[in-house]
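Sync notes, pocket subgroup
Present: LS, DG
LS reminded everyone that the earlier model was apo-only. Rerun requested with 5-amino-5-deoxy-1-O-phosphono-D-mannitol included. Inputs:
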Amino acid sequence: EKGGHPTFMDKEIAEQPQALADTLRGHFDGTRIVLDEQRLGEDDLRTVDKVFVVACGSAFHSGLVAKYAIEHWTRLPVEMELASEFRYRDPVLDRDTLVVAISQSGETADTLEAVRHARRQRARVLAVCNTNGSQIPRESDAVLYTHAGPEIGVASTKAFLAQIAANLMVGLSLAGALGTKYPDEIGREFAELEKMPQAVADTLALMEPVRQLGRELADARAVLFLGRHVGFPVALEGALKLKELAYMHAEGFAAGELKHGPIALIEDGLPVVVVMPSPRAQPLLHSKLLSNIREIQARGARTIVIAEAGDDAVAPFADTLIELPVVPALLQPLITTVPLQILAAEIARSRGYDIDKPRNLAKSVTVE
Ligand code: M6R
């Protein structure tokens, strides 16, 4: 049942190219993005003037990634909200608000209650979900299913990548309805997405040095993760994986925040994983990250750098350099997440932990 893999998590990491391909398949009809269930008309989407995205844990991080793309493509304000916080404040919602609820299981109580709250305020709700017939899609106005297949490992991997792809399709669907993108532009973005299963497969083939690194870091006390722009949610996701699986203190930061506090944590030998933006596509952010790396290396950090292949500028400052395929900037999280999943799994395994069933956690959290 694990298909020759030692754990479900290993199997699910390996299945990521397939999960992405299956999630994308059949969703572009040459003109627009096709949702799976739509109890809303195109007209309902046309009047949307604000988007809230609600989710928990990894699903929340997938939404944070997509926020950058959805705002860029639609010019709508997109607010990312932890589902557990959403209804306990007084969010401004009305008929023209679209609430996107992301959930692998479709049964997460915090997310379900956020959906119910939104509907009581007459907002429209679109679910991104991996489980057919689960409660969140049943209570939503429209659904886009991720086709990652059943995810058994408690730590989300393939569902997370599939969620990013689906969230991006939500953005393209909205851009189509609002007219901020023409069908040919949507087609071009979709074609880039369709190249990602191969890019993830190529990334998976490069992971042996990451496994080795995981074994080396088994005794580390803490690990920090830094990123910017779409690399910031990847840093958060990398830290969450490490907490869940290796029970290690791990934190993700937006690298620009470093000098506002976290740099005080840097000490000799502390492993810091840095998700580099592309020097080609995001030169300004790249140069900012470069100076961050120099700062932390000067203070003794052990720098582990996830970078685009051919990023020669960063190489001298990387104690360990993991080079990944070149992909469009907004799609980078689909590949930069992979080494962080493998790093967390390998550290946890080296410490002797059960990576499919981490302590204290349940696969779906059905109580608030
Ligand atoms: O089923 P959901 O996507 O609603 O679950 C949300 C979170 O509980 C989930 O992503 C959790 O954070 C994972 N264990 C992360 O690996």
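DG: The two ends are 32 Å apart (CA to CA).
LS: Residues 17 and 197 are 4 Å apart (CA to CA).
Action: DG to write up.
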